[in-house]
């Protein structure tokens, strides 16, 4: 159910997260992380709490925290991407209910939609291809497209703002995601709307604590909220 606790501004650019927000995760991120940890001879169970807490962050950043030195972190990241790609190829990825329709409705309202992710570009492209979304939006961004830092930094939101030129002011941007890091990236970018959805990693309290201005049951509620 939409939460209209703050006046909606003239939103012209909508920056949408993928896994957990528009794309059903179904535990695939955790499965791929476990595969990567086992590849490096580590116990995945000892790492899952950190993985869950940092959902939405650039995956290479997570591996740098877990494994430290760069060569090992890069190896873990490659193993993660390979495991996730295998799950995608196996038909394990699906759009969340109403996600495509919401994106099409936002576009029909005259807003520009950009899809962002913490995954590397090959994984993002594999998901977009599997869903038939390659031509759904004018721009998709991964951390490497925006300087490499990923969330919770505002870089991808600000890159979307600059590259689309869809908005005149960052307050005309809405950032939507399912994690605390999505919310932080929106707050740090100065977005007028920072909306959390309850279809992914974090609950209402976590989203609010990270700065969510609105909390929705799912992305399907977004077009109605912005009108």
Structure description:
- With 227 residues, this protein is of the alpha/beta class.
- It folds into two domains: 13-25 and 94-225, Rossmann fold; 28-89.
- It has helices spanning 28-39, 48-53, 59-67, 70-89, 99-108, 121-131, 155-164, 180-189, 204-209, 222-225; strands at residues 13-17, 23-24, 94-95, 112-116, 139-141, 173-177, 193-197, 214-216.
- The strands form two sheets. It has a six-stranded parallel beta sheet with strand order 5-4-1-6-7-8.
- Strand 7, helix 9 and strand 8 form a beta-alpha-beta unit.
- The protein is globular, with a radius of gyration of 17 Å.
- Mean pLDDT is 89; it is low at 1-5.
At a glance:
By secondary structure, the chain is α/β, with parallel strands linked by helices.
